[in-house]
Amino acid sequence: MLEHRNPNPALPKRVVVLGARGIIGKALVARLKAESAAVLALSSSDIDLLEEAAAERLRSLLRVDDALVVLAALTPDKGRDIATFMRNLRMGEAVASALGEGGCGQVIYLSTDGVYRMGPQLITEAAPADPPDLYGAMHKAREVMLASVVEPARLAILRATMVLAPNDTHGSYGANRFRRQARESGKITLSGRGEETRDQIYLDDLTSLIRSVLAHRSHGLLNAASGVSLSFLEVARLVAEQFAERPEIVFTPRTMPVTHRHYDITATRRAFPTFRFTAHADAIARVHRAEGL
Amino acid sequence: MTAAAAAIGYAGMTHLGLNSAVAAAERGFAVVGFDPDASRIAPLSRGEPTVIEPGLPELMAKNRTRLRFTSEASALASCEVVYISPDVPTDDTGTSDLAPLRALIAAVEPVMRPGAAMVVLSQVPPGFTRGLARAESRRFYQVETLIFGRAVERALHPERFIVGCADPARPLPPAFAAFLASFGCPILPMRYESAELCKISINFFLVASISAANSLAELSERIGADWSEIMPALRLDKRIGPHAYIAPGLGIAGGNLERDLATFVRMGGETGTDVGVVLAWQANSRHRRYWALRRLHETVLSRRTDPLIGVLGLAYKEDTHSTKNSPSLALIAELKPFRLRAFDPAVKVQPGWHPALAQAEDALDACRGADAVIIMTPWRPFSALAPAAIAEAMAGRVVIDPFGVLDGKAAAAAGLEHHRLGAPGG
Known about the structure:
The structure holds two protein chains of two kinds. By secondary structure, chain A is an alpha/beta fold. In chain A, 37% of the residues lie in helices and 19% in strands. The radius of gyration of chain A is 19 Å and the shape is globular. Chain B is α/β, with parallel strands linked by helices. Chain B has helices at 15-26, 38-45, 56-62, 99-108, 151-156, 174-181, 192-223, 227-235, 256-271, 276-289, 291-301, 327-333, 363-367, 380-383, 387-393, 408-413, and strands at 7-11, 30-34, 67-70, 81-84, 117-120, 139-142, 161-165, 187-191, 308-312, 339-343, 357-359, 372-375, 398-400, 417-419. The longest helix of chain B has 32 residues, at 192-223.
């Protein structure tokens, strides 16, 4: 659950975005700049968080009234192994170290719903974080790292579910991969009959949510999910509908058991009562158009 | 039993104490109702009930000569039995604040007759009564099973008396035994701790039924079943019963049930008892509490700009003016950016509840121009509203009626989009 420190929402004097070259980072920076917000967009070419001097460099850039949005992470497509896990931890260590002295006005850490074990339980912010893999464990560890150096009233953690975004490079199973498959091969390949249900959040909704957290100076924990889960088959059909020449949906023998994930997003409704999520069908259509398809 | 045999005292004139005192008077006993808060006593002395309960005003008037209300503790010196009866407040986590109760006991005990029985009637955790200073032979705990809106009926016709004692084998003091016997129901003496845990045990079984009903009602909403069709079948099952708590609700409402769960979790943690099932009940309750908020977002708030919401009912439940733990007020607190119009037969809108909450003149007035109407307290008069009149008054079509105050078919026939707990589609 989030709590707000800012009764009259307004963007901070400056937002520092760490990981500004990624899909989410680019979209967030563009959104904030469109509102004429002061933004310091930092990518690995500005600060390589794996370098020894990274913490000092970041510390020198941060002002006490900045809001820092931490998006930088090596995603699973860069590696799911222990070495990648350790590199991600070192990046987290650098950020935590930079924040350890003085810090800044607010820190927003974008984590993952991969911290939750897959199972039939309805996911809320109270669900136990019991990461089943190194990627989830890395994010959970980084959450704890930041919580150890940032006072609770200044730290907001958003655990994002799968992000629906144009030009996604991660290739995760879901709408983004289905669209690429359809474009490249005219086919969408599903495991089994695509029975699994998952939530997803549209990129613009995620950046809107981060913007709201910035404006309200919110702190606490929030799952970034739409509250509506569809089966992969339903998602595949929505993706297929976007193509003039309908791709074939191919079912393949299932190798993994069917799992589901649903969210209770009451905490989001309570924190931001007027926030509206884009319907999945609309989001899929918008992403399709954004890719010029 | 004659009234001359013993006077019965009640210390603490809130909901529990007042209803219990009036029931004792109806049984023919002279009753002293004490509360250190003189502002609470003044209206009672004029014969005006300070809580709303069906039958309470009539019963108070009928027994006026047997009822004496006072803010002087010394008046309890005339009593052979003194009930300690204030309602014990809880915080947001369901934890009791026992300090006012202890202060009251400290004020009452010195004025009591040495041989009089002190009976703790308030909601206390196991171990509380054992820890009091009064002699064990004159110190008791009695389980209360008050239900808001049915308090008089429950106080007049208890199913049984559960009495915590130092030694259950020892007879109760004659005056206390005679008073209990006048109600004509079984009396079950047991150890202090057993009686205190018995109170929690009763509530556990209620919570188990409520949680099962709420879980199954949610699944009903999602798979095209209707929980209202299933309930009668369950009530005819002897193992479940006609009075089982299986009507779906907005979580575990009321405060007392949550208090007992919190007490169990605390004591379970201290003693190494498995508390997993209780944590699951609590989580399910938190989830279902916001059913109406989620429905409202899905149907109206995510679709309309600047919607007007009509709210029928503000009280915690029907036939009471209490707003403590009111689901309606909890919902209103989550709707700060939106315009609301509300009506309740017993509760007026208070400034400070919401920045844009208007008081409606009557129920239909609360529906006027509304994009959605939410019926949050199932007052009987609301069920008399004609769905067609509601539809005509509203600007929108959505009626969120968790407790099924309106007939779903009639509402649909009037063109309303009717949402009820446990119904297909919710």
